Amino acid sequence: MNPLVSVIIPFYNRVDWLCEAVQSVLDQTYNNFEIIVVNDGSKEDVTDFLRKYGDKIIYRYKENGGAATARNVALEIANGEYIAFLDSDDIWLPEKTEKQITFMKERDVMWSHTG
Predict the structure, then answer these.
(1) How far apart, in whole angstroms, are the C-alpha atoms of residue 36 and residue 92?
(2) Which of 15, 36, 90, 113 lies 20 to 30 A from 49 at CA?
(3) 8 A C-beta contact, residue 35 and residue 25
(4) Sheet of 5-11: strands edge to edge?
């Protein structure tokens, strides 16, 4: 069985970019993940985002404190064997997670990053 990956996405503004980021995770060839989105006090209306993705993500709201504090909130509720960070204005190519987990398992490493 493939290990669970907790994908942590802190969010402040540009909900349209957040939609693209979340969709890029949902489009992964690797499919054992949970997506945790932490709204870091954004004043944007996220109603449509939650209507579209609410049943596919774990969503939390917190007062603005910066991306690091939002990541810490997500880490407290994450269940994954692996943690992956994705900024809300970035996207992943479809095979990113599969390739990275395979690489880590083959080499018995607990930490890696991509650039």
Answers:
(1) 15
(2) 113
(3) yes
(4) 58-62, 33-40, 5-11, 82-85
Helix (H) / strand (E) element for 6: namely strand 5-11
> In one letter, which amino acid is 108?
D
Q: Specify whether the CB–CB gap between 73 and 82 falls below 8 A.
A: no
User: Is 8 buried (19+), middle (13-18) or exposed (0-12) by CB count in 10 A?
Assistant: buried
pLDDT digits (tens, 9 = 90+) for 22-72: 999 999 999 999 999 999 999 999 999 999 999 999 999 999 999 999 999
> Residue 95 corresponds to which amino acid?
E
Return the amino acid letter for 68: A
Residue of 1, 66, 54 lying closest to 26 (CA atoms): 54
Q: Which residue is associated with the tokens 């596919």?
A: 56
Q: Could you tell me which residues are beta bridge partners of residue 62?
A: 40
Cα separation, 2 vs 31, whole angstroms: 9
